[in-house]
Amino acid sequence: MPQHDFILLDRSGSMETLWVEALSSVNSYVKKLADDKIDTGVTLAMFDADIGQFDFRIIRDRIIPSTWKPVTSAEASPRGMTPLNDATGRLVSLAESGGYDKVAIIIMTDGQENASKELTVAQAKALLDRCRARNWQVIFLGANFDNAAQAASYGNVAASSVRSSRRNLGRSMMTTAQKRALYSATGEAMTYSDAEKDALKKD
Fold it and tell me: Is the whole-model pTM more than 0.85?
């Protein structure tokens, strides 16, 4: 049964101080999938709104983990605003067009929605609700950002969102990849314990 991983990465200007760690954490996540021989593809999309123009850019498209070429800052750099609703809509459209059985959607941001023109938070939540109804996994990862309220506004239960300090971004994504392997094998939901969440948010 086909599987896929979709990573949605905020590239707004405020991500600049976290950018190296964010990209490294994405690469670590995919390497862990490859090491665990998870039969999936990976799509990485980045988004922002620069000078009022929404940009949703697919950086890696349906890549087998073992053939992943590490993403570097030469391919994209932070800029602009955070049109999270609109980017979520684009990502869900990609996911739903693929005919997948199991899907993991990982949304990494360092701040709140502030620039969408196409979708409201409620509309983006409805799209993610549709994904969750299929037992697709939706993870909100706050990059040095307390994202609990953000994740809840998009319909995520607390156990499916995590705040990561800058230094723990790599560890956070590795932890997420371990949970992804279990989801692949058993269908178990990708969730974080309170102890894991406490450890990952520490500076």
Answer: yes
